[in-house]
Amino acid sequence: MTDLRLSRTFQTAPAAVPRDNTAKYLDSGLAADGFQQPDWLVPDIEDGTAPDMKDDALENIVERLPEADFAGEVWPRVEWSYDDERVRERGREQIETLVREVGEHVDGVVVPKVGRCEDVARAADVVAEAEAAHGYPEGTVELSVIVETAAAASDLRQIAAFGEESSLHGLVFGPVDYTAEIGGREIDGQGPSYDSLLWNLSNEASANGLVAIGGPFDRLFGERAGVRYYNAEAYADQVTREARIGLDGSWSLHPKQTEQANRLHMPGEDELARDVRRIEEFDEAKSAGTGAVTVDGQMVDEATFKTFANTVDTARAVYRTAPEQAETVYSESLLDRALDLDTEW
Amino acid sequence: MTDLRLSRTFQTAPAAVPRDNTAKYLDSGLAADGFQQPDWLVPDIEDGTAPDMKDDALENIVERLPEADFAGEVWPRVEWSYDDERVRERGREQIETLVREVGEHVDGVVVPKVGRCEDVARAADVVAEAEAAHGYPEGTVELSVIVETAAAASDLRQIAAFGEESSLHGLVFGPVDYTAEIGGREIDGQGPSYDSLLWNLSNEASANGLVAIGGPFDRLFGERAGVRYYNAEAYADQVTREARIGLDGSWSLHPKQTEQANRLHMPGEDELARDVRRIEEFDEAKSAGTGAVTVDGQMVDEATFKTFANTVDTARAVYRTAPEQAETVYSESLLDRALDLDTEW
Amino acid sequence: MTDLRLSRTFQTAPAAVPRDNTAKYLDSGLAADGFQQPDWLVPDIEDGTAPDMKDDALENIVERLPEADFAGEVWPRVEWSYDDERVRERGREQIETLVREVGEHVDGVVVPKVGRCEDVARAADVVAEAEAAHGYPEGTVELSVIVETAAAASDLRQIAAFGEESSLHGLVFGPVDYTAEIGGREIDGQGPSYDSLLWNLSNEASANGLVAIGGPFDRLFGERAGVRYYNAEAYADQVTREARIGLDGSWSLHPKQTEQANRLHMPGEDELARDVRRIEEFDEAKSAGTGAVTVDGQMVDEATFKTFANTVDTARAVYRTAPEQAETVYSESLLDRALDLDTEW
Questions:
Q1: Chain A interface test: which of B79, B158, B182, B188 (most A C-beta within 10 Å)
Q2: pLDDT of residue C291
Q3: Which residues of A touch C261 (CB under 8 A)?
Q4: Is the ipTM of this complex over 0.85?
């Protein structure tokens, strides 16, 4: 069974807020279940946490993670800035603390506002130094970066290539800072469209074995004629566009967004049924030894087979980390067939 | 007269199919006339031919080409894969056989699933070695590659630059494999849009003197309320988008598609009449020696002149290789004027 | 006060036309006021001027600039061509004359039809040599290039990076020549869309501290049922798209276009009021010493602050160079508050 890692949802949660329980959002993220359980929980020490609560944020993460029973991956977001040494120094200390205190409880760190490729390498070095200092093998704590500066967008091809030989694992789009950086504007209620950048992100991630994740959608709620409603349509439209162009996951700011993005980035019952059947037919034909193996009128080669296998492996990974989600979407018999298959070419 | 080569249509034909005449599609491609005559006929040994018929496919090509009276170019597609040495070995043997047996009857070979620039150079070396082994001057058999991996899309600029100094002649888009590679999905009946990639393809081809060709459209037929119909509108829309952004040609899977793409990628009567007249007026003004030469209210410089000349050269190339097509679209008198002009600046 | 330079409008004016006053358009550009005053006036010696009037064009510029009282920047466009040495030689002489005769009256020169990065460097050398020859410190006369060849579009990243260390100041898009270069076509009244290229232009300019300016819109007038009208909607739509994606300015061919683009590339009253208030609130909160500074429910960091400051700096720059424009759009009290603020972080 291929050990596919999921990154359908990248849910940020402020790691400290001015409430009685400063870890309120972190706690609820770690306790989420069903479709509200994100694949990545991102405890946020950066923009989501007030400057005077950064220490609380770090402390909350260090306290909560060892006790938590969370099935997804945990990726704290630290402070960083390609053009501000003081901010980078804080990020360095935050990474050092996280690796020292909870190195075995995090999958990686998310570093925002990186600049050119050298800056990404600098962030990777900080992680590697912390790993070495505290006895972790290199690569234990991975790195994902937020592409939200013109410099990082310009160096995307170099950054992704660096990813192939380093602990860099994911590329995440950050449209808010990015728009400010390039001087983009919202006019008549419409901002810039970043189709080219998202295609680049998807292509470069795929060319270098990284994952690519879309940016946040912050108009969480709408209001019409006095009624306030969750903006379900607009978010689903964004996630759908991201899934079409091959992004592995979407950013979530709210459990409802997590619900939607988890569903949109996993195969539906029909999609899974189709690809399970294709692999079964392929296996039968292969055993029958008929040479050319044709399924649904198409010859199956390694590339085609991989796309079928990818559907099945995704469903199985969902079952492994969030069984309720898989059991909700797939019938029991289909799930059994999917779990039984050999998805290696 | 500029010796412009046409590549309006890239028609693939399976080189062997399980029929009484295994060369059925190859034969009909070679015999096509009128608007169904493609500029490039691409006998397909790769995905269009079953694994157990690869030898028949190669044999059909070797037998048919020397006898055929085909006015367009012939570009067999061989097997290849940037990430599978065994497939590349088969491709190597197919190229060797093609050059040895029918080197003077093919214009080039089409190599699919190339990866980074090094892989394209490797394919070019295979062609060059076969040429050398069988006494052909370098460059006799050219190379076109299908851009259908994330690695090739990432290296597009490098690959195209390599094209300027090598036998690489064309860049062809392959959306099906490409979509699988980047994990793109069709959702609600709509797949990813590749506008950015096509613009890149067109720009890099132009910057390096290569030709750029769009990808196949495989929903050949539709059905509505029980009536099955050829999907003429949807294919024409795709070809129109490709022509607008400057692609030199479109992929065809069927003689009807070839008919449409041949027409859409050639100037219409009005377009040709306009540019013939502009060159005539320019020539007159130049002879009159009035210094500034203004046509249609615009000053004519070398760049402007080239766009007029390109229209005329395309029409003349169509007349040269497919006279019926030219005679169908252009009036006799216009064609005479076009053939008479000097299109050199 | 940050010394922000404006480039909302890039208005070309033929520097010599076959009229009694050959400097008619140059004169009216230099005398324009109110919203018709462009940020950049571009006296055009290239395509806008007939071949036999190039000398008059240069002479008009040399005569008029020293006497003119023009508040914006002046950027003559000279002749150039990456693939024609004779044209480059004329450009070289035009630059030499401009620097020698009116070096202190021009902000820079606009060089069209550049090719790969080496060609841009060659143009920069020509400017530097002229500066050196006539005693101007390096960088006195800056350089902007028109991106209108496939080679320049392919090298955009390298060209922009060169800009960071050179006198290169602006990147301007030239769609007409560019479309001819890549073989783009207008079909059914619709030409190619260059969203990807414009995003690249905006991103690379931002990543390297350059300005980015869109291409001309030449369907100045429309006609419907016998009535001829200024094509206000279509031009405003183009400028709006350019402003959204972060271009700093738009090309203007007519005083009416200048009016529209000047307005669309400056903050409106509401936009300015909002960002003035945000900075005021930020300053108050900072003085109160509450640590985290939250404005409009968002924490303010350096990046956020910069976007507020940019709005205010733009309005102040408009007031500085075109006070009538600022006074038309902003109320007196708002303008006073904007002028009073400290926009440094």
A1: B182
A2: 54
A3: none
A4: yes
